[in-house]
Automatic annotation (TrEMBL):
Keywords: Flavoprotein, FMN. The keyword Flavoprotein applies. The keyword Flavoprotein applies. This is Flavodoxin family protein. PANTHER family: IRON-SULFUR FLAVOPROTEIN, NAD(P)H-DEPENDENT FMN-CONTAINING OXIDOREDUCTASE YWQN-RELATED. Residues 3-117 form the NADPH-dependent FMN reductase-like domain. GO terms for molecular function: oxidoreductase activity. It holds the Pfam family FMN_red. InterPro entries: Flavoprotein-like_sf, FMN_Rdtase-like_dom, ISF_SsuE-like. It comes from the Bacteria. Gene3D superfamilies: 3.40.50.360.
Length: 219
């Protein structure tokens, strides 16, 4: 049975990022009805970033090549070692992924990297991956203000260890259910709602298609 995991780097479980990740999983199920598809909400877990214990690098160590830290992330990392595809989702805070997702990827990538000449890695299969980014800005602002340079660092590691990730940017996203409850002069609720009505359904379709493509690429 194939396995696809959606890593939710958002603190919210039913808003923009989570919705798009769920659409990816729906697309995966359409392409491969028997696939095991699971979303993992990082903010529900108790864990830290890399603790620099280097157990994953110890000669003849029991944890060589895998993270030895026994917190809530341990079982997640074990699951991902057997994954056939993984999609990562994050809202963009200060032009980059959330702190929770960053802490996750320290623990995810580092054990695979060997301190040998050329830095070979221990990845057993080059699985397909995808990144879903949700953000308040529009595309021209993202490009003008250098967002891609920050987000691209995560993608570089994904491509180095696995396959080049499929990318979806969801722009000008809705932050609040009721903008009237918050001090928020810089955004127009009417403009936000109009944008969402047109563009978010399109983003959901793109996310669904990514799920289908991930299953095709995993064969």
């Amino acid at each position: 049975m194939k396995k696809i995991y959606a890593i939710n780097g958002s603190p919210r479980k039913n808003k923009n990022t989570a919705t798009l990740l769920d659409k990816v999983l729906e697309g995966a199920k359409k392409a491969a009805p028997d696939v095991l598809a699971e979303r993992i909400d990082l903010y529900s877990l108790k864990y830290t970033g890399c603790r620099s214990c280097f157990a994953c690098k110890r000669k003849d160590g029991a944890s060589y090549g895998k993270c030895a830290v026994r917190d809530d992330l341990y079982d997640v990392l074990e699951k991902l070692r057997d994954a056939d595809a993984v999609v990562f989702g994050s809202p963009i805070y200060y032009r980059t992924i959330t702190g929770q997702l960053h802490a996750f990827y320290e623990r995810f990538f580092f054990p695979y990297m060997q301190y040998k000449h050329g830095y070979p890695n221990l990845v057993q299969k080059k699985i397909p991956t995808a990144c879903i980014y949700t953000m308040n800005v529009k595309e021209d602002e993202m490009l003008r203000d250098g967002y891609r340079e920050y987000m691209g660092l995560f993608e570089i590691f994904l491509e180095n260890y696995f396959q080049k990730p499929l990318i979806l940017h969801s722009f000008n996203t809705y932050q609040f259910d009721d903008y009237g409850k918050y001090v928020c002069e810089v955004f127009s609720p009417e403009e936000k709602a109009a944008w969402r009505d047109v563009h978010f359904p399109e983003d959901c379709k793109k996310a669904f298609a990514i799920g289908e493509e991930l299953m095709i690429k995993s064969k």
